Batch of 3 targets.
Target 1
Amino acid sequence: MKIAPSILSADFANLQRDIELVEKCGADYIHVDVMDGQFVPNITLGSNVVSAIRPVTKLPLDVHMMVISPERFIEDFANAGADILTIHQESTPHIHGALQKIKEAGVKAGVVINPGTPVVAIEHVLSLVDQVLIMTVNPGFGGQKFLPECLEKVEQLVKIREEKGLTFDIEVDGGVDNTTIGACKKAGANVFVAGSYVYNAENPKERMDALRAELA
Ligand code: DX5
Ligand code: ZN
């Protein structure tokens, strides 16, 4: 079970401090949300920020690309030090080719689907990926309400993974907190992204401990 705090809710003027903080609290990945203002109605950061944070942590950088035609930026993010590059099925007509490109760049490949997209849309690329991300909110912003109906897709993926003898991780992202993480685990997820719950808190350590306790 892995916890991946999302720096979307960190203090961007103190990114190093906020990354070190969650690393000390037992984070497994640092989740980095890349938004282009087109695929989602918000702009965050680019590969230059990934380069800048690469030396401040030993943790894998789990980069979630919410951009149109992400294949344009795969090389940049791989060179910047991303460990996992996860791209949206909805963001390119060439999801298969784009995932191949990520693997060729020597980075772990992830595919992600929005709440409105069914699992069947990614069935034919599952053998290519190291991770599948199921969005549990509509992407774009931190602090939104968890959509429990998305967990059915996690259950479907667990079944398909077994049938096909595959080994990808299943990650959930959006509205994950101490009250929702248990249901995600029960459905079969093993990587849990949490942004506002961890960072918008007086004591992030307590929040990380509370998430970990729910996974025990
Ligand atoms: C949403 C992002 C998430 C976001 C999660 O578009 O992909 O990673 O940071 O934030 P919370 O945990 O606050 O829902
Ligand atoms: Zn994300």
Note: Residues 151-164 form the longest helix (14 residues).
Target 2
Amino acid sequence: MAETIFTKIINKEIPADIVYEDDWCLAFRDINPRAPVHILIIPKKAMAQLNDAESGDRELLGHIMLAVNRVAEKEGVADAYRLVLNNGAGAGQEIFHMHFHLLAGRPFSWPPG
Ligand code: 5GP
């Protein structure tokens, strides 16, 4: 997988507002927030998009889901948040290091745009 700016954030080569970190994942505030709370949760393992995940990634993916909940609780938004994952350029993915967007703090419409 080609290195992205998120690899540099994981390696602390460029700064980010990190809100949570453990051995498997990292969460930091989006540089261009689309909601009062907009946090990106990424695996430390390089994976371009969710579609690249394999059965061996099952534990990692479950771990990330629980990390999302921990971040939401830390941010005080556990009661209402939206979790978005753009898989592929056609779905709006711009950074090809798999990541979830945790968005909260404003109303959200459905269906999403
Ligand atoms: P995507 O469109 O790939 O799903 O989302 C990429 C997200 O990464 C965008 O919301 C964008 O604002 C965010 N982003 C891009 N570059 C940086 C950066 O250098 N630092 C941080 N914190 N966020 C970034």
Note: The pocket of guanosine-5'-monophosphate is lined by residues 5, 16, 28-32, 40, 86, 92-95 (CB under 6 Å).
Target 3
Amino acid sequence: MQAFSQAHPSQPARVSLLIVDDEPRYLDSTRLLLTPVVDGIDTALDGAQAYARLEQRLYDLALLDLHLPDTTGHDIMAWLRIHQPQCRVIITSGDDHIEAAIQSLRLGAYDYLRKPYEPEELIQTLRNVVGRIHLERDNRRLQQQIEHSEEWYRLLVNNSPDIIYTLDARGSFTFLNESVRRTLGYSPEELIGQDYLVLVPPGEIDHVRHRFNDRRTGNRATRNYEMRLRRKDDLLTKLSPHAIDNQVIVELSAMGMYRAQPDGDEEFLGTYGVARDVSERKQAEATITFQAYHDQLTSLPNRTLFHDRLGQAMVQAKRHAQNMAIMFLDLDRFKVVNDTLGHPIGDSLLQAVAQRLKACLREGDTLSRIGGDEFMLLLPLIHSRENVIFIAEKILSALKTPFNIEGHEIFIGVSIGIALYPEDGDNRETLIKHADIAMYHAKDHGRNNFKFFTHALNKALSGRLSVENDMRRALQEGQFQVYYQPQVDIESRRIRGMEALIRWQHPRRGLVLPDDFISIAEDCGLINPISDWVLGSICRQANLWAASRLPIPTLAVNVSPRQIEHPHFVDRFMEILLGGCARSDAIEVEITESALMRDVDGAIGKLRKLADQGVNISIDDFGTGYSSLSYLKKLPIHTLKIDRSFVQDLFRHQSGATIVAGIAAMAKGLKLHVVAEGVETEEQLNYLRELGCDAYQGFYFSHPVDAGKATEILSAQLPG
Ligand code: C2E
Ligand code: MG
Ligand code: MG
């Protein structure tokens, strides 16, 4: 019972009553009589008291005597109409004129009771009016509740981030929430009555119509159907090429609304649906996918995507018996740019190169950056070799004009290796590997050109691979040997130094010269352990000579660029040197100009460290590179070794002598020691003396010889 009364909305609240009558006895008896019917009863004996009461509170009901000493019931009624319109009035009066009653009702009285009346009559009348008041109150409350819940519902619907809509059976909007304004730029009013297809991009109308008609016939709901909707501005600018930006991707869930028919069928009333804007999520997903498949720096497809496209292109080519080509592109000397100008400029250069390369492509070609300064190009349809040559030449010439990056004029070349499908490989890995081999071949042939893959190249490569394996074994099994070639002072004819030159006593191939394996060792990283071994070996030899009390000449050791690039080059070098007990001022490091050019600043720093610890620095094969005087001045150099090609040219070309004389004069100016390499004859030696060289090295005095012979030569120098 308790629960019921709580839940009952029309539980009567208090009803207040004011009784106005000039007869005190009547007032008292009426109050008693009505107490069970009305909760709060006040009384007044005249108009003055009545108004005083009325000023204080609101009454639901007033029982007014028509004739009062200072006023009339009608006057109070008139006042009430203005100040307390909710108050219902029942007029009581001894006046039995019908006009009085009519007048009262006309003025808005609820009822008119003529005195004297039966108590039941009064009670009944009061019960009626109280009941009515309760009813009205309930009504008002209900109305408020309805208004409130409607407001609530509207609030929910309109603040939903999703578009909520209903369509009639023909597909016209009958309802849309406010979200449509935020999402698509339309007001709900603009769309109501319109076909939903106005929101569908023209290209997708057929598809969408099919989908929804299909759904409508069945009683199933569509869930999370992804589609595009046009924004209002898209309609305005539908010719704009950026129309795609004016579309919104939504995920739509829709449901048919049906009404059961008496015949058991269902009548289709329309559709109720919710569309969620997922554009941002889609955008984020697209960005993530893009990043996974593209290179961040250039936005070109990355290796993964390239592989994928290559696979697809192969399937196509196979199906249609077509030819295709891939190109492996590697920038020439990109590292120099990076090292000398810094990574930000290197990055900008890569971006600029990517731009130029893209301009060389046809539609359907894929250019990809697969790492560092390496690019791959897929040409999925080619008709002839000339086709490919044309594109390769176009690329080479596109890069001919220098790049201007932040005020730096940069020339960059590219080496291109080409592999053709199907003849050079019928799977991705082989094709890419062969393009790579061809690219190395292009690099070996002076760079900045292109080479097609050939099977002969492949053989050379596998030869290279076996050399690599053999070298590892050679290190372990002690097949390397150091030969020594004396450097002789031209004036005193005494041995000033010995150049250490490595030899490989190969079990099958016999004595292998450094030109046949040093560059391979550099490529595969074996150059570092090999060089360590050479340095250790000459230290041991120097100790042996010292023990035999032989004069120890300066020992020159060749250092390759790959060694210098190593971050711990200096420490490693000094560690071996000092560990081997050799004096650092008895050691000379020979370094070629090209090694210096790769990273001038890095090399200068490291060589200076060596020089600071007493090591001599010598520039090998001088004159063949592009060293400028400005570099030489910065370097802590002691010796210049004139390349043997100039010595050989001495009597062949006029230029030979000119160059040697020039180098010698320059070296004198810089107070450098000049050593001529490759001296084979006495005439050469005499001429070199005239031209101002300090020392020479060559077959004329001695071939490079093993340690035993070198010891003999040194012993022969001993006086007596
Ligand atoms: P390089 O430093 O310029 O060495 C001089 C080369 O000229 C040696 O060749 C030597 O045998 C050769 N030669 C000397 N006198 C004459 C001559 O009168 N006429 C002719 N035609 N040639 C002469 P080799 O020993 O074959 O070495 C070739 C190159 O290999 C060296 O050129 C050097 O760059 C490199 N190399 C040799 N040993 C090492 C080493 O231990 N480490 C490194 N990194 N490179 C080395
Ligand atoms: Mg040398
Ligand atoms: Mg040399």
Note: Residues 1-11, 236-243 have pLDDT under 50 and may be disordered.
